[in-house]
Write a structure and sequence with these properties.
The complex is a heterodimer of chains A (368) and B (373). Chain A has 368 residues and is of the alpha/beta class. Chain A has 15 helices and five strands. A four-stranded mixed beta sheet of chain A has the order 2-1-3-4. Chain B is α/β, with parallel strands linked by helices and 373 residues long. In chain B, β1, α3 (58-69) and β2 (73-79) form a beta-alpha-beta unit. The chains are: A alpha/beta (368), B alpha/beta (373).
């Protein structure tokens, strides 16, 4: 035990000796959480819209002023023929053109209906859909207003309740995601770099001839970096709560325990990486190039897993962040207890055990 | 020139000598491109809906079967208990629940007004808003049909004015996310690899000590920097070409613009991305520092690139800050060239921005690198 303490002491010396790296490890996540908290949202704002009004009457004028009164849309001039529309889209300075048909007001009065065409730049399909839906919502509201006196014999009112996130804040999606991403990468990076550096510098040989056992050497690294990563996790949670008002509806103790578990999973992944590579460069390459995009895109952070094709859904099962994100959302937003995410917890436990035993196995191989 | 060539040769030899690194550089992006391109979709095709029918009338049955028949919804549960429904949402087995209250049909028939309640899991606000839109549209459609039946029977005209909206989605009418995501994800993967390799190069020589040996040779600063840049640039270009070929073959990505313009833009963009890596490499003392710094910038660049979230939604200060993000220019150019078939006059602005940026960042890296300590 005393020996083990010495080992941890040594690890801490390594870290404190390099204050620049320490600063980077602690400051970067904070900057990122703050930055993304204000930046990442799927809402549209000030989308550039051009008008193609073939009618120019008092109804189209009213509709236009409704549309540009909202914060979603910004007026970006008029166009006069379809060729011009194409040019403007190609140049990329507008995202939508609203086309009013000829004699709009007159048709609406006489035939009780008139046509509006929305031409949307769908080269980014998601933004395209959000734009068209927002425009439609404004039009719908207008239709409702002009029909106020009319009593329709058949209408169904829908009363929505947005559960867990009534204000529809983007932060509910990105904080768990960024947290999982940062914890995975920083933890995996730190351990894999620290182990491979010992190999590269030759100090690993010294450790191996010392009375420490392989398990001890690995455990020494894990304990040290678990402490560092937990400080990071705590900082992120604190910021999420103070700056972005994210609730912790469930138990804080369980939340921290789950963070501890996930950090350990990521660290053991880092150890596993370091046992199969022999240089810092390769270890880093695996832990960033190999982990960054999958953790971002296959964990449910940005793209909901339910929408993916079945085979890809199967692949997402091996991404640890996926399970962690589900757990955090459960504890923080849904406020559920362990009975709702015991499965995810067990999966993370199994992953950790697998990573560690594989590493010890590889590590012993190298000893001989 | 001769000196740069020798340096390039040396860099490639170093890469070739290592049996692990070259396969990693080539295979990781290719495998990820194929998998991630399939994963990156916001398209919602299967909303798991739990239905609580407290009315049990023909009308409520009709509404439910209409929902079940819609392409967006899968009914995962039909019960009479709203607690059960809520529990399913808590468990993540349902995304939303629709409750049809008792007396739904009789209220509709009596005064033409009905009410339904929906509960939507809104942790993902984007998906929640879409779910609401789809639910509303099915329900409105249902009400509209009932209405027109009634009008037909009673034969009375009503004074309801309607505006029909028709939406046409240009450049990607099928709303295929892959057309948009594949060039974007490929750009990101090549950026990660390129920035990573360049941010390591100089600092690695510093750590190993070979930088001293280089410093005493007659190699000039500019030559040294170019010798570090060009090999990675070649790798990046090849990877981009291979990735695009793959995109074309596997995902049938349309390429509306000219190939020359695409590769011109890739070439210019890579100079910026790699220059950024080189700059980090000249500033950092250890590989570990270089890694963490480039890791930080990469995440910021990727998440603020406009690929996953619309740029316009960011606050003004963030948009200004984002001007230093080379990915925003590049992704804009790629989107315009691939899907819209834009010409050089359409993209000259972002392209020029990248060119100036590249010159600036390389100049900075060159200035920061000191041959003498």
């Amino acid at each position: 035990m005393n020996l083990f303490k010495q080992l941890i002491k040594k690890e801490f010396y390594h870290i404190i000796r390099d204050p620049r790296t320490l600063l980077i490890i602690f400051i970067l996540p904070i900057i990122q959480i703050l930055l993304f908290g204000y930046v990442i949202t799927n809402e549209i704002k000030d989308t550039n819209v051009a008008i193609y009004d073939k009618s120019y009457d008092n109804v189209t004028r009213k509709i236009k002023s409704r549309i540009f009164a909202s914060e979603y849309f910004k007026y970006k001039g008029t166009v006069h023929n379809s060729q011009e529309i194409e040019e403007r889209f190609r140049k990329g300075d507008i995202k939508e053109v609203i086309v009013f048909e000829e004699n709009f007001a007159e048709k609406l009065q006489r035939e009780k209906q008139a046509d509006i065409q929305l031409i949307v730049d769908a080269s980014d399909p998601n933004t395209g859909k959000i734009i068209s839906n927002s425009t439609r919502a404004i039009l719908k509201k207008y239709i409702k207003d002009i029909n106020q006196q009319v009593h329709l014999p058949y209408t169904i009112q829908t009363i929505p309740a947005m559960l867990f996130n009534p204000e529809l804040k983007g932060a509910f999606m990105f904080v768990p995601g960024v947290m999982a991403l940062l914890l995975t990468l920083i933890s995996a990076l730190m351990t894999s770099i620290s182990l491979t550096r010992e190999k590269e510098m030759g100090t690993m040989e010294m450790l191996l001839v010392s009375p420490f056992r392989a398990g001890h050497i690995i455990a020494g690294k894990v304990v040290t970096y678990v402490i560092l990563s937990m400080i990071n996790a705590g900082g992120i949670l604190l910021l999420a709560n103070l700056v972005f008002d994210l609730p912790v509806n469930g138990s804080l103790v369980i939340l921290l325990l789950e963070c501890l578990l996930f950090v350990t999973t990521a660290l053991s992944l880092g150890i596993l990486i370091s046992t199969v590579t022999d240089s810092q460069m390769k270890a880093m390459m695996m832990s960033t190039v190999g982990l960054m995009m999958p953790t971002m895109l296959l964990s449910g952070f940005i793209f909901p897993i339910d929408n993916m094709p079945f085979t890809i859904q199967l692949i997402t099962n091996i991404v640890p962040a996926r399970w962690f994100i589900t757990i955090i959302k459960n504890i923080m937003f849904k406020g559920t207890g362990i009975q709702y995410f015991w499965k995810e917890t067990i999966i993370l436990l199994i992953m950790t055990t697998a990573f560690i035993s594989l590493s010890i196995h590889n590590f012993k191989d190298r000893l001989e | 020139m001769q000196r740069i060539l020798y340096q390039i040769q040396k860099e490639f030899l170093q890469l070739k000598r290592d049996k692990q690194i070259l396969p990693m550089i080539i295979m990781i992006p290719i495998i990820q491109l194929v998998i991630l391109a399939n994963a990156a979709t916001f398209e919602i095709n299967e909303i798991q809906l739990s239905v609580v029918d407290l009315d049990r009338s023909p009308s409520s049955q009709q509404l439910i079967s209409k929902l079940a028949g819609s392409q967006f919804f899968t009914i995962v549960n039909r019960s009479f208990s709203s607690e059960k429904s809520r529990d399913l949402i808590l468990k993540g087995k349902a995304d939303a629940s629709l409750q049809i209250p008792a007396q739904f049909e009789s209220a509709l028939n009596r005064n033409g007004r009905g009410q339904v309640f929906m509960q939507i899991n809104a942790i993902n606000q984007n998906a929640a808003s879409l779910t609401q839109v789809y639910l509303n549209s099915v329900i409105n459609d249902f009400a509209g049909r009932k209405l027109s039946q009634k009008i037909k029977i009673q034969g009375q005209p009503i004074n309801y004015k309607n505006i029909n909206t028709h939406v046409s989605y240009w450049f990607n009418p099928e709303m295929n996310y892959k057309f948009y995501m594949v060039p974007g994800i490929l750009s990101i993967l090549v950026t990660i690899i390129g920035m990573f390799l360049t941010s390591m190069t100089i600092v690695k020589e510093k750590e190993v000590g070979t930088i001293e040996q280089v410093n005493v040779t007659p190699v000039k600063k500019v030559q040294f920097i170019s010798g570090k840049l060009i090999p990675v640039w070649i790798i990046g270009m090849l990877e981009m070409a291979f990735g695009l070929l793959l995109g074309k073959l596997l995902f049938n990505i349309p390429i509306a613009g000219s190939y020359f313009l695409i590769f011109l833009s890739v070439g210019i963009y890579l100079i910026v991305a790699l220059g950024f890596g080189l700059l980090i490499s000249t500033v950092a003392n250890t590989q570990q520092q270089a890694m963490f710094v480039s890791f930080f910038f990469m995440i910021v660049f990727i998440l603020m690139s406009g690929l996953f979230t619309p740029l316009e939604s960011m606050p003004i200060w963030a948009q200004k800050l984002d001007l230093i993000n080379p990915l925003i220019y590049f992704i804009r150019i790629m989107r315009m060239l691939f899907l819209k078939g834009s010409s050089i006059s359409d993209i000259h602005q972002p392209l020029l921005a990248l060119l100036i940026y590249g010159g600036f960042i390389l100049g900075l890296a060159n200035w920061r690198y000191r041959k003498t300590q």
